[in-house]
Structure formats: structure tokens, C-alpha cells
Task: inverse folding
């Protein structure tokens, strides 16, 4: 039960972090996206949303490591598969990205593969 | 796969299409993440390795993670999250193969099938995302105020 709650928290943190990161990064002016590391990172860290996203992802990382040290990997692996379907859904709904049917199929194959690799 | 390995489309870049440059960034993310995971695995999970070397491996692994995150920022500033995210899962397959090669981890039929499925799925996503198709104007451009 506690594991389930922890897993939901981890997945939610990852989703929120990545979506906010994408939202933040899409505010970077186009020329800066192809610029060198210093101007690019200056642009990136000038966006408050990116800081929030990185904070969430850092939290996700520590939660995930915490879970990995307390539970067996074979109990935890559904996290990484669940992540991806939900992420495509959230990207579609929140970010209004166009997800083609073939990409859903591809993501399904990847999920099945990750399930087999991580769950064995 | 001529589209994804092709030339750069600097002016015609659209976040809904995987350009050659964006694809190379994603590949670099995958390499960095795979290296990071294998280095951390070597540094933490193996008693055979002397402590001094274990520290070096952990530091190098962390560095690879940071490099991977920088490349992820670069990639995500150019393409859709729903294109980038499925592709980076290839690192799961790479880590499984690397674990077998470096640390002699077992690679049974179930894992091999999983690796094959991941590879097929990633190829399908990359091919589909890089196809030329009519795309709506980007949902969030830096010029639109409310994005």
C-alpha cells in the first residue's frame, strides 16, 4: 500500500517536472536554442518555470532512489512503464502536442519491452 | 531512415518533427544516460572494485548524468516532449546490454525479447516523427505571450 502511494508520487513528480520543463523551454527565443552552452543555459535559467521544473525533477530523483533502496527492483519497475503512457496523454492534453497513432503503437512496443527488461 | 540522418533544417525546424539535429541530440542523451547508469552500477553495486575506483566511477557517472540533462534541455527546447520521451527509453535496452557485457549480468530470453521490442518501438517512433507531413503551427512559440 505504501509502495503504491510512493509510486503514484514518483510518477506524478516526473510528469509534472517534464511538462513544466517543456513549457518553460518553449519560451526560449529560437536563436538561443541553437546557441553554445553558456548563452543557452543563461536563457534556460532565466525562466522561472524551468527552476520549478528542475526542483520537481530533483525531488523525483531522490524519491525514486529512496524507493529503489527500500524495495526490490522487481516491485518497482511498473513505474517506468506507467510513466510513458501517462506522459504521452499529458503531453497531448496539457501541451496540445499531436501524437500520431503510429507513435502510440511505438510507445506501446517500448513499454512492453521495458516491462520485460526491467521485470525479469 | 534517410530523413532522420539527413541535413539540418535550421529555418524549417518544427517541434512536431524530428529533425536530424534533434535526433543526434536524443542519441547523445541516450549515450550519456547509458554511460551514467553503467558507471553508477559499477561504482555502487560491485564489491570487487576497490573503494578508490568506486568513488571515481560514481563521480564520472554523476557527471554523465549532468551532461545528459544538459543535452535533454537542448533537445526539449527543439522538439515535442511526446517525441523525445519515448526515444530516450532506448537507454533501458542499452543498459541491459551493457550490464551483460561489462558485469556479466544475465541476459535471458525475456530480456532479449524486451530489448528487441524497445528497439522496434524506438525505430518506429523515430521514423514516424521524422516523416514529412503537414503540421499545425507550433502550439507554443516564444513569440506568443501566453505560452
Result:
Amino acid at each position: 500500500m505504501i509502495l503504491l502511494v510512493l509510486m503514484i508520487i514518483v510518477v506524478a513528480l516526473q510528469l509534472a517536472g517534464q511538462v513544466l520543463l517543456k513549457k518553460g523551454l518553449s519560451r526560449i527565443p529560437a536563436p538561443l536554442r541553437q546557441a553554445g552552452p553558456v548563452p543557452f543555459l543563461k536563457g534556460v535559467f532565466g525562466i522561472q518555470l524551468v527552476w520549478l521544473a528542475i526542483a520537481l525533477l530533483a525531488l523525483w530523483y531522490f524519491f525514486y532512489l529512496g524507493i529503489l533502496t527500500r524495495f526490490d527492483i522487481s516491485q518497482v519497475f511498473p513505474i517506468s512503464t506507467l510513466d510513458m503512457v501517462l506522459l504521452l496523454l499529458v503531453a497531448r492534453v496539457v501541451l496540445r502536442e499531436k501524437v500520431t497513432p503510429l507513435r502510440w503503437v511505438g510507445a506501446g512496443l517500448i513499454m512492453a519491452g521495458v516491462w520485460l527488461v526491467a521485470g525479469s | 531512415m534517410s530523413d532522420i540522418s539527413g541535413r539540418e533544417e535550421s529555418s524549417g525546424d518544427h517541434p512536431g518533427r524530428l529533425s536530424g539535429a534533434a535526433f543526434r541530440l536524443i542519441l547523445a542523451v541516450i549515450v550519456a544516460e547509458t554511460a551514467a547508469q553503467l558507471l553508477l552500477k559499477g561504482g555502487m553495486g560491485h564489491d570487487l572494485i576497490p573503494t578508490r575506483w568506486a568513488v571515481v566511477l560514481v563521480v564520472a557517472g554523476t557527471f554523465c548524468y549532468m551532461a545528459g540533462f544538459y543535452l535533454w534541455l537542448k533537445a526539449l527546447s527543439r522538439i515535442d516532449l511526446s517525441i523525445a520521451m519515448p526515444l530516450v527509453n532506448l537507454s533501458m535496452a542499452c543498459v541491459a546490454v551493457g550490464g551483460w557485457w561489462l558485469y556479466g549480468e544475465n541476459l535471458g530470453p525475456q530480456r532479449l525479447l524486451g530489448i528487441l521490442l524497445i528497439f522496434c518501438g524506438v525505430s518506429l517512433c523515430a521514423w514516424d516523427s521524422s516523416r514529412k507531413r503537414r503540421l499545425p503551427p507550433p502550439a507554443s512559440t516564444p513569440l506568443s505571450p501566453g505560452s
User: Anything to note?
Assistant: Chain B touches chain A through 45 residues (CB under 8 Å). The radius of gyration of chain B is 18 Å.
